What does this fold into?
Amino acid sequence: MSTERVIFDRGYRKYEGPRLGSSGARSAVYRDGVRRVLGLGRKARRKVFPWALISIALIAAAIVIGTHWVIGNIQESLREGVPTYGGLFDFYSGISLLFIAFSGPLLLIPDRTEGVLSVYFSRPLTVDGYLWAKLRAFATVVGAIYLVPQIVLHIGLALISADGFLPYMGDNLDILWKVPVVTLGYVALHAAVIFLLSAWINRTGIAAASFLGLLIAGGAIAGQISQASFSGARWVSLLAFDHHPRIIRDELLGDTVDYPAEIAGFGMWTSVAVIAVIVIVALIAVRQRYRNLA
It folds into this structure.
């Protein structure tokens, strides 16, 4: 047996490109998160559902604008029951629930079940940086589902307004802060719930079903129980979590739907407090969960 040693030159070269550090790692996780949620770079069937929902949201805004235009007078169309900002939020919230149930679990579950968290955290990336990048990806896409059609609607209504574009925009400056605030309520609540579920559940389908069950079926059950006659029943209405962003929407944009929490005597600021508590609990719980996994 030969004892000679042979060295092969494989042409190794030291990396001489930019070292982006933790900010570069967070940006990479953010971009990957956006691509996952939208199904980009994945199989065609993964693209169909999210993009179909986004298309429906934009088409709905166009239909509403067209209906206002056909009637010819915005005030008259409102009397006819044609929705504007608040009504579209109600429609978009249904689309958003389906979109989040389908795409939200993909942000956290695959990384954990496929064992790549150790790879992420071996780089200059902290648990907080990882979760922040995932949250930004979620907020970017889901926020756009709410905001982009509202922007299209706002500009469209201004274009068909009998008073003219600029007068309409000037008379409705409050929309520029009310719509983002309502959007924040929806995005904050839904992000907190889906991140909490996805941090512990290891199957995307189960996480999606749990999300829809908690917000839809759970809300209906809580609403029914809150009308019971036993002491403290009214407080159960606060467990109808998905109603709280809607209560904020109604207060700011003028819709008149009465939700169980409102019937029980709670107002907008109670809903704000409930959303804040859920968000804080989610932040603490998910962060601790991933610190234990790191």
